[in-house]
């Protein structure tokens, strides 16, 4: 903590507010916070600190949207999530900060490209897309991997849920429960890698009020948000957050 400058604290605080807002309104905006934390903190420390802050936001999101979850969709995804988490843990244990930082950026850009492709193809489709068992398992595995390595599983779930044509409240409830359970599962993996320590706990505790503030604003905003606006903001946030991570 002592190595963080005042300007860096301001950036981290704003990113914490954005995490809370993303958890209760526009999930894709969390990618911006991932980028900010990865740029300001050592990359491994950033993943652990964000995980703790995401859990704060998860608790708030679940408390607000607990009745809106589609548990049928979640049951089809969850079995494949654990292998994705294990693979992500292996990557975290073997790569250095520079490689991990660029990997996060590449993952975000890849997810952006996939979202653009599917959105363009399904522009006039009104019925939910039918996913095979293998494709659904693939979504779960990729969500587990990306959230373990880069805390960037949100865009994967966004693609999946948008293809299912879920309404806004069902979307928010399903996302809230999925990532609450997923982030709880990630805690022992992160602890086993030595990422949860005194420094990350203290940093997260200092920034947690920002998450609460952002979540409150997000709840109010979500009730007024149009789906078209949601889609556009997610795409813009994803590309803006990914590009800086790929630069030298």
UniProtKB/TrEMBL annotation:
The keyword Disulfide bond does not apply. It is found in: Cell membrane. Pfam families: TauE (PF01925). The chain crosses the membrane at residues 48-65, 77-93, 99-120, 171-189, 201-222. Keywords: Cell membrane, Membrane, Transmembrane, Transmembrane helix, Transport. Its main location: membrane. It is a multi-pass membrane protein. PANTHER family: MEMBRANE TRANSPORTER PROTEIN YDHB-RELATED, TRANSMEMBRANE PROTEIN YFCA. Belongs to the 4-toluene sulfonate uptake permease (TSUP) (TC 2.A.102) family. This is Probable membrane transporter protein. It comes from Angustibacter luteus. The lineage of its organism: Bacteria, Bacillati, Actinomycetota, Actinomycetes, Kineosporiales.
